[in-house]
Amino acid sequence: MPIDLKDTQDVYKDAGESVDFIILNLNRDDHEEDLDGVRELSDRIQAIKRSMRIRRADGNLNIAFGFSYSAWTYLFPNSNVPKELEDFQPIKGPKYTAVATPGDLFLHVRAADEGIVYEVVDQIMGFARYFTTVEDETKGFRYLEGRAIIGFIDGTENPEVIESSEYAVIGDEDPEFINGSYAFAQKYLHNMDNWKGLSTEDQEKAIGRRKYTDLELKEEEKLPNAHNIASKDEYGGVEHKIVRMNVPFSNPAENETGTYFIGYSRYFAVTKRMLINMFTKSDRILDFSTPISGTEFFIPSKSVLDQIVDGER
């Protein structure tokens, strides 16, 4: 059974210029009320997207909507669970910990400008706020030249667009949930003063690449725990990839700046191994970047969303 990209949500496309990440918790006071709300929301999101794409055909609107393990098993207790959907557990390294935080529903909305993102999120929350509370909302943006907020070109290790679905979309290894995806959402706060205090050479050794040209350093030039070493997954002697759409966020007047890491994967095991490597090897970037959240979500195919809408889950 081949992957059908017409059936996938927007998990393998570009990160957008303006971005809003939203994590919601279900009220859990009334199961039927929550389930009815989720069914309507699953239907409305697709309709809102179709409408906005007509209103702003040039807006490059993309939306991903998903469920945590906790939400899926609560809402659909008689349904099978996607094979690699789980409650994310903290990963403790010798110096730092990848924390686990709560969340039931996940929205990743991005477009060419903030006006489109605002209109879409406002319409979605017009339905969602009656049966959910907000765990977190983070507004991201495309930084200059598409660089990470720490100044390096981001997404270098991403697969090419033509190949990205192979790494981001579930295939026939889980046929009931084919064309879905696993998303991992994680926020980092950066100590920008300390990072900026490093010389460019030391920053490059920490990342493993040249800052301005993005050329990879020779192995002997990198720190042993350079980011592009520590974050790799080479399980079984083969490099495994995911699709990242990381974006910066900031309240600069409050001196709060960070990166919202979002990774879409066909196999969540790949994302988890990357995280285990980063934290057990004390990735150098963690000396300047503190994780403050971490949750896994399943992003259903459009077909599975239709099943939810029709009461078949």
Write up what this structure looks like:
This protein is of the alpha+beta class. It is built from nine helices and twelve strands. The chain has helices at 31-55, 69-75, 114-128, 161-168, 192-196, 200-207, 227-230, 268-280, 302-309, and strands at residues 18-26, 62-67, 91-92, 97-98, 105-111, 132-141, 181-190, 243-244, 247-251, 256-265, 289-291, 295-299. Strands 7, 8, 9, 10, 11 and 12 form a six-stranded antiparallel sheet that branches. Strands 2-5-1-6 form a four-stranded antiparallel sheet. A two-stranded antiparallel sheet has the order 3-4. It is globular.
Give a nutshell description of this structure:
It contains nine helices and twelve strands. The chain is of the alpha+beta class and 313 residues long. A hairpin with a 4-residue loop joins strand 9 and strand 10.
Helix content: 25-40%
Query: What kind of sheet is the major sheet?
Result: 6 strands, antiparallel
Helical element count?
9
β-strand amount = 15-25%
The outline comes out as globular
- Low-pLDDT runs of 5+ residues are none
Question: What is the terminal separation in angstroms?
Answer: 22 Å
Question: What radius of gyration results from the CA coordinates?
Answer: 19 Å
Q: Count the beta strands.
A: 12
- Seen as an oligomer or otherwise, the chain set is single chain
Structural class comes to: alpha+beta
On the 0 to 100 scale, the average pLDDT is 93
